[in-house]
Amino acid sequence: MNILGFESSCDETGVALVQAEAVGVPRLRAQALHSQVAMHEAYGGVVPELASRDHIRRVLPLARQVLADAGATLADVDLIAYTRGPGLAGALLVGAGVAVSLGLALGRPTLGIHHLEGHLLSPFLADDDAPSFPFVALLVSGGHTQLMRVDGVGRYALLGETVDDAAGEAFDKSAKLLGLGYPGGPALARLAAFGNPKAFDLPRPLLHSGDLDFSFAGLKTAVMTRLQKLGPNVCEQARADLAASTQLAIVDVLTAKAVRALKDTGLTRLVVAGGVGANALLRETLDARAARLGARVHYPPPALCTDNGAMIALAAALRWQHGLPAADPAPPRFDVLP
Ligand code: KG4
Ligand code: ZN
């Protein structure tokens, strides 16, 4: 079974070819990605109309490149998967439109995949480190922060989520306040490397709420008030200290809640997915806390933490392997909204 996957929910155009047998971890044959980060940088965030237009320009050349890299042709493709949401409607329509058109032209089924399911299952793309079910998943992206209990493919129970901003949004908004570029997460982490994380005592909202929900909106406000106090001529060291303190506050909350989820469920495997999962301090802290509990943390390969086509093709492959419906209803619905 060869699955061609398309991701276009936000600012990355991703295409990948994944091969799956009836059993065993599916294999990534080839993938290609175009990031629009440089294009949106000048605006300090993603401009939806520009994103859609760029997906249109990139998607077919990337698909050709993936097939060439895999030594395959369209005739080898058995199933076409695409991100059906959540995401920017115009951007999603590009991937869905291409996938459904290819499906009609080739006489092959298509399958819309929930973007977060793609992230959730992406650690299965780590060659020798595929987690086994059940596990707790911490999904930390620019738009979502959720803890899930995962009992199998398609068997997901929400344990808790953010009541306002997502963790990635907290990174991005704080970074913007600090005058850093977009996307803010990696930029803030780089600046934080030169700062003292204990320099500023920032709030850790809902840390002791007793549940598994998160709240990050107050943190951004706290960063803003600290910056206002520091004044317009804030020195480099104070900026780095504030970046380090912000990163530590976010990591503290994510770690505490993930550990609580492991304790509450009694599970011993934690999967971390989504862009914030690339954060080095989060990885170090989670690894250390989980080890103390006798638990293991699984991550996708670093390059597959942020949006990509491989996770979409992989989710489709796993759905097919687990006997879940692996085709959109016919005729395909153009229903890409969340
Ligand atoms: O999963 P993703 O690529 O896209 C969404 O589905 O949102 O996640 C993007 C988010 C952004 O907020 C970005 O700032 C954050 O992930 N991010 C990071 C790091 N790399 C990406 N945040 C903290 N540290 C990083 N190293
Ligand atoms: Zn994502």
UniProtKB/TrEMBL annotation:
E.C. numbers: 2.3.1.234
A GO CC term assigned to this protein in UniProt: cytoplasm
Enzyme class: transferase
Domain Gcp-like: 28-313
Keyword Iron: yes
GO molecular function ontology, one term from the record: tRNA N(6)-L-threonylcarbamoyladenine synthase activity
Functional summary from the UniProt entry: Required for the formation of a threonylcarbamoyl group on adenosine at position 37 (t(6)A37) in tRNAs that read codons beginning with adenine. Is involved in the transfer of the threonylcarbamoyl moiety of threonylcarbamoyl-AMP (TC-AMP) to the N6 group of A37, together with TsaE and TsaB. TsaD likely plays a direct catalytic role in this reaction.
Originating species: Rubrivivax albus
Family: Belongs to the KAE1 / TsaD family.
GO-annotated biological processes: tRNA threonylcarbamoyladenosine modification
The protein, known as: tRNA N6-adenosine threonylcarbamoyltransferase
